[in-house]
Design brief:
Blueprint lengths: L1 H18 L13 H5 L5 E4 L3 E2 L4 E7 L6 E6 L2 E7 L6 E6 L6 E9 L3 E9 L14 E3 L14
Parallel strand pairs: 2-8, 6-9
Antiparallel strand pairs: 1-3, 3-6, 4-5, 4-7, 7-8
Length: 153
């Protein structure tokens, strides 16, 4: 029994080496650790740093996994999803029609492997930004906190 176990282990080691034969002619750069780690260098950019409430902001992202669904959030609140193209790029717009002045962080995430954030600020004195970008439009809805009311008997 011990002899059979040793033979099976030796056979597994031999076959592991055979499985790597297709990679013999690859340059060393092609076999870097990033290829197997699922690491993406995602970036997200916004067209304007500020605008008044009611403005549109266009976002463009790159470096995401190709043909994947990206989750879009603003200040941690879910806005929706957008699909990346075959090159790992994405584009969408954010409408701030009902949003109050303040700072907003928009994040695009794909499977927690690729995430990037871009920020903008809504200011009452800033210019009103018109719709310029392409892709779906997501609406910033202000979070409404209601008091807890309990009826006493």
């Amino acid at each position: 029994m011990q002899k059979l176990t040793r033979i099976l282990i030796a056979l597994a080691i031999l076959l592991s080496g055979v499985a790597l034969l297709p990679f013999i002619d690859w340059p060393a750069e092609a076999l870097s650790w990033q290829l197997f780690a699922g690491v993406y260098d995602a970036t997200l950019a916004v067209n304007y740093a500020n605008g008044q409430p009611g403005s549109y902001f266009a976002f463009a992202g790159s470096g995401y996994p190709a043909n994947s669904e990206a989750t879009i959030t603003v200040n941690g609140d879910f806005l929706g999803t957008v699909t990346t193209d075959s090159n790992g790029n994405l584009a969408f717009n954010v409408n701030t029609n009902n949003a109050p002045p303040g700072n907003y962080a928009v994040t695009a995430t794909v499977n927690a492997n690729a995430t990037a954030t871009a920020t903008f600020e809504l200011q009452n004195g800033a210019p009103l930004r018109q719709l310029e970008g392409e892709g779906p439009i997501f609406y910033v809805v202000p979070t409404l906190y209601l008091p807890a009311i309990r009826r006493s008997s």
